[in-house]
Structures are given as C-alpha cells and as structure tokens.
User: What shape does this take?
Amino acid sequence: MTQQPIPLDPSLAPPGTRQFRDAGGIPADQWHADQEGETLVPTHCCFCGVQCGMYLRVDKGGKVFGVEPRNHDINRMRLCPKGINAYQQVNHPDRLTAPLLRRSRDEPFREASWEEALDFTVSEIQRIQAAYGKDAFGVLGGASLFTEKTYLVGKFARVALKTRHLDYNGRLCMVSAAGANKLAFGIDRAGNPFADILQTDCLLIAGSNVGECFPVMTQYMWGARDRGATLIVIDPRETAIARTADIHVALKPGTDAAFFNSVLHVVIREELDDEGFITGHATGWQEVREKAAEYPPERAAEICGIPAQQIVQVARAFAGAPKAMAWHARGIEHHSQGVENCLAVINLCVATGNIGKPGAGYGTITGQGNGQGGREHGQKSDLLPGGRSIMNDEHRRQICEIWGIDESELPPAGTSMMEMIWQMQRREIRGLIGICNNPFVSLPNYRVVKEGYDTLDFHAQFDFFLSETAANAHVVFPVTTWAEDEGVMANAEARVVKHNKAQEAPPGVRTDTWVICRLAERLGAGDKFAFAGSREIFEELRVASAGAVNDYYGITYERLEETGGIAWPCPSTDHPGTPRLFEDGRTYHPDGKIHMQVVDWHPPMDPYDDEHPMTLTTGRTVAHFLSGNQTRRLGALVEQTPRPWVEVHPSHGFRSGEPVRVVTRRGSEVFPALVTEAIRPDTVFVPYHWPIPTAANALTIDALDPRSKIPEYKVCACRIERAEHIDEVPEPPTAPGRQAYPETQVSRTDPLPPTAPQGRGTAERS
Amino acid sequence: MMGRTIFIDPGRCIGCQACVSACRECDSHRGKSMIHLDYPDEGHSVASLPTVCMHCEDPVAPCAEVCPADAILVTADGVVQQADTTRCIGCANCVNACPFGVPKIDLQAKLQMKCNLCYDRTAYGLAPMCATVCPTGALFYGTVEELQAERPGVQVADSFTFGTSTVTTGVAMVVPADKVQWPVPGGLPGSQLPLVEVNGADVR
Assistant: This one.
C-alpha cells in the first residue's frame, strides 16, 4: 500500500518486541483494545519435527489465548494449520484436571486425589514386580515429551523400576532412518540443516508428503525450485509437492530398495559416480556395486510398476547435478525393510559424492516434535543418555557412575514397542506405565494391541486429554501441555530448541517431571530423582551426554535463548554447534569412513493373492497429528478434516462419497471414497488419525523390520468392495461428567464435507 | 496494484489451509475465516488456490459500486474494507456483484463479511495473518520488487477479464513468465472472454 504509516520490511518483528518499537511500531499493549496487557511468549510448536518458532499470546490473567507468528530461523514466520491452532489445547474444556482411577476395568473412572493415585500406582508396581520379577512392569514413553522428560523416563525405568522393558513411540516413526544412519555414519541424525536445501541443484524427496506432513519445509524446497533446482519426488500418490515436481516417480509401495538400487545401477553404468570421493571416504563399495549390478532398470521397472526410463532420468538428474540432496521420511521407513531403504538412499548420496557439503547431503524428516531428541537420551530400549549403547560395557559404566548405581543393577536392553504388546498378550509384561502416547490408534493391527492392553493387570497413562488408550487404563495422570512447562526438543536437523513456559498449569494438573519424581520417591529412589524441574534435569543430561556422540554438554538454556537453537554435537560452551556433519570428511565410526551397506530388495511381509490383490498404504493429513489425540478436539482442525477417507483410482468404478469397504487379513472397515487420478490404480490410501471403527490401523499388519523393529504400516495386501453405509467417527473420550467439546460436534450427516478433503475428490457427489 | 499488497501464486499452494486457520485468528474478524480455498481440478489433480479479497481498483470495487447503503468503504491506500456494520443491510448485492465470489453474508447477523487485508495489522506495518503464515509463499505480502528479489524472474498480473469487461485489482496473481501484461481470464468457460491459453498452449 502506498501510504502506509510505517513502511517496514515483510520479515517483521511482532508488536511488543524491541525491534518493532524501534522501527516506529506501536507496542503490543496499545495496538488493539482486546489485547491490552498482552504478552508474547517465544516458544516452538508442539507438533512435528520441523519445530517452527511461534509466540503464544498470553492475556493479563496469564492465560494463553492465541498465537502470533515468530520470525525464527527455522520457519521465518510461517506456520501450518496445526501450529496455528495448537494453542487451543491449552485451555480446552476437555483437559483432564484430576487423576482418574478405577481398581478394575469393570468400574467407571472416578476422580481421585494425587496421593491416592500415586499410592495405588506404586502399590501395583510393587505387587507385580514382587510376584513376577522386575521385568514384568514396562514403560512406554513418548516423543512429544521434552528431551529432559525423555531422559527422566529412561532413568525412571532403569533406576527406579529396574526394568528392561522400556521403549517409546518414536519406534513407529523413524528408527529405520536412525538404524541406517548409525550403520553408515556412526551417528544418528540428518547430515544437513534445512537451509542447505536452498543451495542444492537437485532435490530428491523419497516417501514424504512434505506438503501435508511438514508444510513449513516446502518453503525450503520451493526456494530451491525458484533457483532452478530439479525436484524429484518418489511417492505412490501425486501429493501437493509431487504435482509440481520435475520427475514424479509413482512407484508401487514396498519397492523402494529395488528402485534406489536400480538408480545406483544406472549411475554406475553411465559412470556418473564419484570414484574419488568413494575411495577416500567409504568402505564396502565393491559389494554395493555388485549388488546394484543385479538391478538393471528393466528389472526394477517391473518390480516398481514404473517406466524404466524414469529410473534413468532420476539417475542422470541426481548424479549429474553439481550438488544434490536426498530427504526421506516415513514413506520409505515404515517397511519390513525400512533400514535397507534408507541405506539405499545413503548409498546413492555417497556414490555421487553428495555428503557433508553445503547443498549436498541427506536428511530424514522426523515426524514427531521430539522424534530426534526423544531417543537420544535413553528412552529407547537399547540406548542410554548421549546415544550410548546399553550393550556396551564402557557406556554402561559411564552412565552408572553418573547415576550413582552399581553396573549390575542396570538392566540389559529391552524389546521394541510392538514386541512389548506381544509380551503383554503372553502375560510376560503385566503392568505398564504409558507416557503421552496413544497406541490404540497409532500401533498397527488394533485387535492385537487391544488384546495386549486388556490382558494387563495394571495400566497407568499420562496425558492431558483422555486418549483412547487412557480410556482403557486403571489410572490416568493429568499432566501439563507443552505451554505449561519449559524444556528442549531436537528438530529434524538435530537443532536443539527451547520451549518456554507460557502459563501456569490449571489447578490439579502437574508436570510429567513432578509425577515421575513422586513415583520414584515412593519406589525408594527419591535421592536420584530430586529434580525440581526441567532445568535441573538438563544440567544432569548435559553431563551424562558429555563425550558421547550425541554431545549436549556445550548447550545451555541461556545459549539456546540467545541463539534460537544449537545443533548437537556441541562439546563445549564456546562451541557453535554442528549444523552440518562430516565437513572435515570424517564420520563417527572409529575409522572415520562411511560404511556402505549392501541392500537387497525383498517383497513386503503381507503377500498378495487373488483375495487381496491391491495395496493399502497409510499416512497423514495436514489437519491432524499422529493418533489425533491432540488435534481431533480442536474445532478448526475437525472442520478441516472431520473423518478419514479411502483414496481410490477412477478405474475401480466408484464415485466420490460412496461407501467403500477396505478388507485386509486383519479386518475390514468402511470409508467414504475419494476418487482421484492422483493415486496408482493398484493402491488405496487411508489416513490413520482416527480410532475404530474408522481406524486404518485396524487393517495394517504388525510385521516388523528385523533391525529397527518399525512396523510395516505402508504396505498391506487388501481388496476393496462396495459397502452399505459409512461408519461414523466416534467422539473423543472425555472424563466422567464432562461434555464432549461442542466444537467437535461437526455435522456428520453428509457423505463428505462440502469440499472433499484436500480436493482430491471428483466433482460428482452421490 | 497497490504498493505493498498480497501476491497469490497458485503454483505454490499445497492446500494445507494454514491461511484459513490464520484468518480465523485475525483480530478484526476473530473466529471466522474470510479465505476461500478452491480446488480447480478436483479428481484429476491436488491443485488448489487460495482466494483473498482482490481489492479491485477499477474504477471502484464492484461490491462498493453496487452497495445501496454505501457500507463498503475504500481507504486512501486502496483497501476495500468489509461492510461498515452500522450501514450494512445484509442485502447481498455485493455477493452478486463480486466477480471473484469473495464476500459472504452472515445470515444470522444480516451482515456482510469479507477480507479487509487484515487492516488491523497492515495499518501498523504488519503483514496480513494469512500471508505471514503461508508455509509455501503461495500468499506473499510485500511490494512487487520484494517478490522479484525473492523469486527471480517471477511475473504478475493485476487485471482479470470477465466476458467483455476487465477488472483491475489491488491484489495481484503470479502468472507464467510469457503471459505478462495479459489479463487473466476469469468467469465461466463459454462466456465471451478472449481466450489466451488452452491446455497450456497459447491461442492468441
């Protein structure tokens, strides 16, 4: 506008900040009557692994009431719909404000005092452990917790409960990438920061619907596109970013390893590989070469169901670019060969010399806010703080020294999340504490999961809404949201960012830290859990990670507040952090080399037959987050995407909105059809954020990757058939005496919302 | 085109509806979104595009022109405000007149509502909420020079043809580089508009 009172540049500081005032702006508390006395608290989003910065708006009464964009280095004011609406959780009427308790599952919940809930939990722990051994009690943590809390969960399981059975829901998220990175590079994180994407000449995105799952990352990807970079997208669906890609490879789900091996085959055949880089920095190249020779494009094209020419195009574009990058996400990781898929991508990057340079490298996009930090400090069954291994005697000794326990007391490695469910079924695990996770929606093969939890003698759950899993528990502890406590998270770039406390917890609500420390006290380990809050835990975590690969020692709260985020490893307080790995040409293996691994393709675990000829694949939609416990109660997000659907190709003869039954070997469910050419004819897609009877995960298979133990969510054999009527999405569970939040009462009478979600439906409606 | 305005680039839109959610947060109409998110090629493509008020300039915004109550005021800097609640009679003339289908009528309140370029923010030098949060830059707020600095070679158009009439707007649309200075065809196919492009081929 030509006559603006205050012309400022578009990357503005928000009102109330010094920069805004210096530029002639009006202080926040004077610029609108509604906002008198408002303060802005800088923090980050609680959802995905991008960790966008945001300000929470806090009114005079100290209550969070809104959001304001924040010019943080990661997102530069950008937010997605989840981030914009996230603040609505904080003072939501569905919040749990008193512990819920029942002695048996036949009784309804009643509100109990904290004393009673804690005492009952501890007496159950002691009863179960006395009768069946320490390992009969398990802990399942979460990756939405701050890193300090994940450290505390790990320490609690191993020091207070002394159980080996500890795992976390990042097991469903990116352990395949973690395993692959560890094997190849000896370090478990993305190699490059997001900003490197802007400098690349060729960007390969494998199995990631960036536009919906990590919308704010698209600004980097299209920044690269603006500069003329080639964009390659590997995805069975034509997603929003695939729509504008230079090459969109719509391969059959579960064939990624064959595809990448074949790309490598062409790279070698056309002599586009970087022999100099490989000889100097990698081992195992000869074996990888030999294996790639078995995958000519003609063979891979048949396996993947794509034109062979596409494989050649991708190889030439990726290997021919001066600087190329590959980013991948759950699409290639949620497989029974997830680790191999990631290794195949790494092999391609290494073979073309695209490692450790600005604009050249690899990265995995973490799905959960703290998917990266959640496993680094001992919440995963085989890891100790600092990414140390629980199988390594030296590592065990170091941590036991810090924790002040004898090494013989530290339990061995445990099992993975899905394996723990099977152990519950077999009654090997009889009691469980679940912390901020919702396996009833997020784990595959719902029937098995439900059976496992129903078999438990005792189940306690931490959450701030009553999740589907918590509704099945004996004790539910009402804990804080991310806006009511401080702590750090590590995003997909391994950049550690600090979340700040914006408001006091509502009466009756406690922090996860407080609850875990009280339980530890009652279990007789109070001296090792004398933490007042996150700050003290972080100090211990820093020391515990010092000298390890995941070194946080140089990171302090003060530095994080000054810098807006530091990437680990950061060994000393004057160290700037490590945004880009391997710049010195050395990896974290003792020999400093990249260990290339041979990758072979094998078919998915769920075999196709005449009964189940098609592929069911699952994924996310932009308005919801993982199990939906946080997002299925926010009116705006429910309105945007009220229900799941099944995406089918027009060749099957369905019309949009018609009920379609998806049948797999685990069960069948009915969804409204979304008929679109943006999906392969042999594949259907269902988003998984909803509970039964609209749960994609009632259909998925609980087959695991042998190395990373990630479930194979992305490929199930299925068939589709016409059905009579669509199952309704159930209301989210609520505490006794509470009404479901009125805004979630979106009309579900139409077969589809006025506009089909994400606009992939045909214009004709039944 | 105004000096500092919104630029819409449908090629960047991912249909995430961050703008729709952000618009609800804007203080001048908190709780109601004024953004229209459309899917122009449903069933065939996931293409989507956000429509904000285009703040027409030529000769005066059609909605303001037809308002019998003179409720729609245009500021000196070209922003077409939403209807003044003390004057608006909820007659929906503006809804019929707008070639972009922007204004909405709140039937219960019998009042018109539409995007006002976040005047509560832009008047203080803040970008509108939708363009601030847009993850991809499909909605960009700034001057055309700032846009071109960020995206080398980008071209925009700020006139649209509907049949035989052309409307010039304050908000501009990013167009293919070889289509500069040509009005963007609007309205329904089969009307009297001069076609410039069919299936990507120039037919001028």
